[in-house]
Amino acid sequence: MIRNFYHNERCVMRYVCDLDGEKLAKIKKEYPSVICTQAVQDMIAVDAVDAVVIATPVSTHFKLAQLALAAGKHVLIEKPLATSVAECAVLIQMARERNLVLMVDHTFLYTGAVQKIKALIQEGVLGKIYYFDSERINLGLIQPDVNVLWDLAPHDIAIMQYIFAGMRPVSVWADGSSHVSSTSCDVAHAIIQFDTGVVGHIHVSWLAPLKIRKTLIGGSKKMIVYNDIEPSEKIKIYDKGASIDFGSETAMKPIYRSGDVYIPAFSDEEALKREVNHFLDCITLGEQPLSGGAVGLEVVKILEACDRSLREGKKITL
Predict the structure, then answer these.
(1) Cα separations in angstroms, 211 against 27, 87, 205, 217
(2) Strands, DSSP E only, in 42-101?
């Protein structure tokens, strides 16, 4: 994020704030014109600072965003927006009252791949959507202040909300287990049911031997495999499916379709570069953020329901 703002000709990066002196020394060496400080209040108090980017542990998001908004600064904040729906609502209200931009860093919404998937769904290429099945696993990084769902699942929840625009999540069920962390789950699954019958499955883990970032989206006409780790062919569309003709004598025998596979073209511009430019457009041109406070709140709403489901061991109605 620092690199993208620093090299963007539409803005000037004035400060970087971090409690870690060693990190600041490295940043100062790479970006000599930036003022480095360990005092966030001093940075926010500077009139020449118009916007603040918050990339800190989740437990600090609310307090830091409050400070920035109260000082009249536009805010771009890492996901998730805050640790509760109530905190999100406070930040949204503060931004609205002060006519400030509040935007959440749901980076994947700015990728060419996810935007292409949304376009394909809107165009009806996949037909009726059946399911969204994602796996986001790796070895680490174990977070001290949130469980694995709060750390990794916001990506997939935000993607679902974006590509399934018009569908409303109605229930959440989550299950998780703790193996290394003594305070929170480090392996988890979540099931999100939508009002259209679409179901979203999310598998997240900090304890996998390899890194996987793969999503399957099934439809009545075609199916998508989205592999974010794939360097060039991130999206593959499969002309495959199954159907049953209940009116025929062979109703118990599914009809399988296996056609071609094709790889659509889409923009490969860096997502963070797009996101930074969009944030600046929202500030200077009055555009509405693609991942604004309301989007961030809906993600946190589902995460809260996941936590409740983990505690109570049951499906939670939204």
Answers:
(1) 28, 32, 10, 20
(2) 51-54, 74-78
Residues 126-153: what's their mean pLDDT? 96
pLDDT in tens, 163-180: 999 999 999 999 999 999
Q: What is the pLDDT of residue 248?
A: 62
Kindly state the tokens that stand for 187.
């392996």
Both tokens assigned to 24: 């600041």
Contacts of 300 (CB under 8 A, 6+ apart): 80, 81, 82, 83, 84, 85, 88
> Roughly what angle, to the nearest 10 degrees, separates helices 148-163 and 293-312?
130
**Residue 285, number of CB atoms within 10 A of its CB:** 7
pLDDT value for 221: 95
In angstroms, the CA 199 to CA 129 distance is 9
Q: How many residues does the chain have?
A: 318
- Spatial separation of the C-alpha atoms in residues 272 and 249, rounded to whole Å: 55
User: By the 8 A CB rule, do 171 and 315 touch?
Assistant: yes
Domain 111-268+301-317 has CATH 3.30.360.10: yes
Give the 3-state secondary structure of residue 150.
helix
What tens digit of pLDDT does each residue of 32-79 get?
Answer: 999 999 999 989 999 999 999 999 999 999 999 999 999 999 999 999
Instruction: Tell me, yes or no, if the two domains 2-108+272-292 and 111-268+301-317 fold the same way.
Output: no
Task: Give CA–CA dist 89/101, Å, rounded.
Answer: 14
Domains in the chain: boundaries: 2-108+272-292, 111-268+301-317
User: How would you classify the pairing of strands 199-205 and 129-139?
Assistant: parallel
CATH code given to domain 2-108+272-292: 3.40.50.720
